[in-house]
Amino acid sequence: MKVYTYSATGKRSNNEDFFGYDPAGIFIVCDGVGGASKGEVASRFVVDALISEAETILRGRLNEDLIQKNIAAIHQDLNKRLQSYPEETGMGTTLSMLMIKNQAAYIAQIGDSRVYYVNPSSREYWRTTDHSLVQELVNSGIITESKARTHPKKNVVTRAIQANDKGETVKADIIKLNKLNAGDLFFLCTDGVIESFDDAELMAVLCKPGLSAQGKLEIVRMTCENGSSDNNTAILAEVEPNDAFNNGADHQMAMRKVISHTSSAETPEVVHDVSGNPYEIITPGSRLSAISDNQSGINIPEGKKSRKKRFNSLKWLILIVIIISALVVLFMIISGRTAEKQAQSLSAHNTAHVRFHGIRGLDRPD
Predict the structure, then answer these.
(1) What is the 3-state secondary structure (H, E, C) of 16-33?
(2) Domain finish residue from 266, 290, 305
(3) Long-range own/partner contacts, residues 82-89 (CB < 8 A, 24 or more apart)
(4) CA gyration radius, the chain
(5) Which residues belong to any copy of the PPM-type phosphatase domain (predicted)?
(6) Which of 115, 150, 152, 251 has its CA 20 to 30 A from that of 306?
């Protein structure tokens, strides 16, 4: 595998992202959550632990159970750390991990960091599903994917490796891939990258013909440098001919097709799902259902995400509009009452004048 990486602090004061990889076949990106609770400690802890266990993990029979057990063990180690550092209660991290060994590839996913699998030649791709509040709202049909990008609660994740004193651990979504082609790409990233790209924009870069994998990652980095306020980290791994395999599995996983717009911008869009490559989806258990805005999630602080700024600005704008509207209504009411009084005064004057002439008329001799 050809591997290219980068990590940037963005417009924040510290970097809570952490990544690592072992050329033997393990690639990891983590995004710390918890803000003041040392999210950067959790992300580094998990990456270091998994990389140190990479040889053991890859030496064994790689399967879902082995991966889940290793993640659970590391989660327990993070929980035990609280006994020595109780001030770190609440710290946690997302996890996006790729493992390749013996003609099989596994992806493990926790949180809202992502793994993309891309076939540039066919312009098809697949990606992990976020464990976030807005994704659950999308799944329920309450909002669209485009609305999710600007939703005021898009900073809430619903699953993370989070330190706790109850000894609780979390399960990952595990996906098994049974076929890899030379030239295919794996793109692992934190949500700071997604802040600058939607899927179509990202695929425009990753599927761009004639551009090396290193050049593609550099475009991503430069775009995030200008467009992301969050930490942003990515790993881009390119499948080489000796890494490719096809074990003939019968299971299939839908790939998304990217087709270019006819506009001058030529920005690709996802138009439909297609099948045709053999992949197996392994589901670890029940997902959260019907999450509402007041249900629990891990709320990443505003220092971690700048996402609430636009929402707060909108609230002030709405308040100003309401105040102006109220003043206009008040002015109209006062003006109406003044006009009414003037009309009444004029009416009284005219009535008195008519009565005066009427009296004089009665006095007129025949």
Answers:
(1) CEEEEEECCCEEEEEEEE
(2) 305
(3) 82/163, 82/164, 82/165, 85/38, 87/37, 87/38, 88/37, 88/38, 88/41, 88/42, 88/163, 89/37, 89/163, 89/164, 89/165
(4) 31
(5) 2-239
(6) 115
Residue matched to tokens 């990606």: 127
Q: How far apart are CA 278 and CA 181, in angstroms?
A: 12
Q: Are residues 191 and 297 in the same domain?
A: yes
Are 28 and 121 members of one domain?
yes
Residues 144 and 102 in one domain: yes
Residues in CB range of 212: below 8 A, 6 or more apart: none
Residue 70 has φ and ψ, to the nearest 5°, of: -70, -40
Distance CA 65, CA 56 (A): 14
Residues in the chain: 366
Cα within 13 Å of Cα(122), Cβ side:
18
Domain around 345:
307-366
Task: Identify whether residues 328 and 239 lie together within a single domain.
Answer: no
Q: Distance (Å, rounded) from C-alpha 84 to C-alpha 244?
A: 45
Domain count, the chain: 2
Integer CA distances (angstroms), 164 to 84, 88, 155, 167, 208, in order? 13, 9, 21, 6, 44
Residue 343 structure tokens: 């009309």
Looking at the fold, whether 60 and 137 belong to one and the same domain comes out as: yes
Residues 279 and 351 in one domain: no
The answer to whether residues 277 and 327 belong to one domain is no
